[in-house]
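Suppose you are handed only these lines of text.
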Amino acid sequence: MPISLKDEAAIAGIGLTDFSKQSGVSELSLAVQCIKSACDDAGISPGEIDGLVTYTLDSSDEVEVARAVGAGDLSFFSQINYGGGAAVGTIAQAAMAVATGQATNVVCYRAMNGRSGKRMGQGVSGDISSSDLIHWSWYTPYGMLIPGSWIAMVANKYMHRYGVTREDLGRVAMSQRNHALRNPRAYGYGKPLTMEQYLNSKQIAEPLCIYDFCQETDGACAIMVTSAERARDLKQKPAIIRAVTQASSRGQEQMTSYYRDELISLPEMELAAKRIYDMSGLGPNDIDAACLYDAFTSEIIMQLESFGFCGAGEGKYLVREGALDIDGRLPNNTHGGLISEGYIHGMNNIAEGVRLIRCDSTSQPEKLVEHVLVSSGVGVPTGAMILGRC
Amino acid sequence: MGLDNAWWWEMAADDKLGIQRCQGCQTLRHPPRPMCGDCHSLEWDTVEASGKGSICSYTVLRHPQFPGYEYPLVIVLVDLEEGTRVTSQLVGCEPEDVDFGLQVEMLIQRDPDGFKLPVFKLAGNA
Ligand SMILES: [Zn+2]
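From them, the structure of the protein bound to zinc ion can be written out as follows.
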């Protein structure tokens, strides 16, 4: 009998460390701190953890983490590839594990000294040998070394085709900064951003400027997944996983899917959208708020189209009418997102999705939030999920 | 370099812009890969591109500035007239002069240690 993941699993706990430019501790230390915190949030002991999932890019592997945090016997452990594209994928793994009885309490985590240690924004380097590194060899000799350069190529084409302006990108950055103003954990806490500042800022990779980029950060975030049934008996109000999927589309590359017919849409996000809507029985009109992956502002506008909140080329209109703001149609990244809270590779966007369901965001919309859409990295093999109230 | 892409750089060293061609169904493909995704043939050969194409998209890189590159750096995605796309650099052009759809031509640039790289210039420019 086919198994659907619809409503099978839930997020029962979230845990985060402080965010900073220099944590002063190891990534393993950050990992175990956020995992302990997620267990405390859920009201379980770390000894009850029997599954762990992280990113292939994470330096703290599962058994090191398990030993350090005092986890029990593990019956499930795995890692997901593709940087921020892994975020929701870790939850998909955990949900499958609890739905099929492979594990009971699975913690997904991402711990990174993303500012003081290995900075993603420094891009790729090293010997060319694996298929992954050969992929980069088509770009590095030309100076395309950083994620912003890879994304700018798509953003520029998209903006040219649909008349999206730098002011539109600025509106996305300002909307998320406005959310962050109220979030003490956020990089942007208490630091307003004006359109004038935005437009006069340093260009990095045209059309993207410094405020279009996510904020490299030291910090960690853990998400505790268990069965929906068990989650109801734990400490917090659960965020039910209505649907979750990974998604990679034909012709996909990581960051540089330049050879498909169109550069003006995100086929992998459209695939993710179709799958989560089919799985949940919900549609765009049922989604009350979102945490769309936001390594770069342009990605937000494109995703509004991918997930069916508007038609192709119409994302700019939603942004201009304030849809992403706290009182808008789709309050988005109400913690500030990767751009204004911090770049924990999308894990912190999942945590905010859970807070929105719990009515616990520092920028909680006044309206009832029944369903939140959360997506993973843009331009890479990715994923998406819908969280709902129980 | 690896077994699947070394030939492309060898063609570049010979002042040529290469495109991989499936021998099963004659489909051109770039970047190179060992199997044709359409007919699943492992057999392939190469054709030499004319080097003519048009700008599909571009970006101007200004920061951060890595050693060994001259900034601002104009990066282009070129629709080759053969039908494949290639990522490259536009040289001899001010950032203000690059635009979507402009015709471009390939030339080979040799870096100080002799490595040859196919780059592009605006068609008609010296
Ligand atoms: Zn073929």
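What can we learn from it? Residues 22 and 44 of chain B are 4 Å apart (CA to CA). DSSP finds one helix and eight strands in chain B.
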